Amino acid sequence: MSIKRVTEAELAWVNRQYEQIGFMPSKLQNEIIAIVMSQGHYAGVGRLVMLNAHEAEMGGIYILDAFRGQFLAQELVSYLVEESKRQNLKTVYCIPFEELQHFYEKFGFHAFDAPASNANPRILEKYHWCLKTYDKNVLLLKLTHDG
């Protein structure tokens, strides 16, 4: 297992995966995109979308069916959390499907009262879009780095 940052050459592959599962496409200009490799094959993808100098959204975590059960999503999320620290981000938001809440809590993400918070307006907008768009319920979680 290894994880690598996506280059322009790999972006088309990333976006084909996202298109197949109904996720928004990626672009390198404001995103840190990572591919997890297993035995030399592309096995999954995830991203940090920069909202500003201090905030990002972690999302697009997707492991191809043939590679599930190898804990690759855990490795990918761990990598992106560490990358968010390297980028000196203060807050990382995540909008996972409800059944993934405990998975993300293992990395320090927690639910919060979005209406009463000062959450980034772009995240609130996307959260409401996800609630309307997906058949499954989604949650709004955040991870806060002290410092």
Automatic annotation (TrEMBL):
Keywords: Transferase
Annotated InterPro entries: Acyl_CoA_acyltransferase (IPR016181), GNAT_dom (IPR000182)
Domain (N-acetyltransferase): residue spans on this chain: 1-146
GO terms of molecular function: acyltransferase activity, transferring groups other than amino-acyl groups
PROSITE patterns linked to this entry: GNAT
A Pfam family of this chain: Acetyltransf_1
Protein name: Acetyltransferase, GNAT family protein
